[in-house]
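User: Predict MOSC domain protein's structure from this.
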Amino acid sequence: MRQENSKRIGQISKLTRYPVKSMAGVEMEHSDLGWHGLVGDRRFGVRQMKNASGLAWLTANRMPELLMYRPCDFDTDSGERLPTRVQSPAGDVFEIEGDKLRAEIRDQIGCDVEVMAMKDGIFDDSPISVIATQTVSTLCNEAGVAVDSRRFRANIVLNCDEVAPFLEDDWVGRVLMFGVGNSAPAVQITKRDVRCKMIGLNPDTAQHDPSVVKSAVKLNENNAGVYGDVIRTGTISIGDPVFVLDSNAG
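Assistant:
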């Protein structure tokens, strides 16, 4: 893949990793992009021990308040800077794999849970998600809510040079390169991001507003953003230019 065969589409405006699946994210100025996504992304998850739905991982779809739990006290000796504790919405701080956090979550959902660490991450689909600020603002404005990219829980938010929303759909099957040079980190875009009710959850209050999902259905067949697989690793930073090129470009 050579950058001279590409087209600039914008720049990185926000980078976020989510150390614990469905909990609050951690914004970063820069991040290493590894084979399993942003380093330290979704490396912990809350597993439901006996859940009638058959879904093992607890998400904010079942327990919206998870969004307000904040990973904290990061281990600086670990290469991935993983959290050692979690702060609850009430301000209590629990050991991330301790009994007190498990008990608090169990009491809210009515079944036993355990917090598990997974070295390759816990992803619903591909390990990288990307969305454009234009898509975020269009959907939020249509829904009549404050413009807030946190609703969409993307790893990489781009500010595109074009003002139209849903440009991401055109990137499916193509490659995004982040930064300048033929060795720049790159992601193969695999599919559109079909949305669930989680985008209707206010990340600060966990209150649900169905108008956000309805806006996605109305304007773009319930899609907002895209998923991708890492095909070249490296460091990415806010402000990096982003280029798109066809997968078979030399």
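DSSP finds three helices and 16 strands in the chain.
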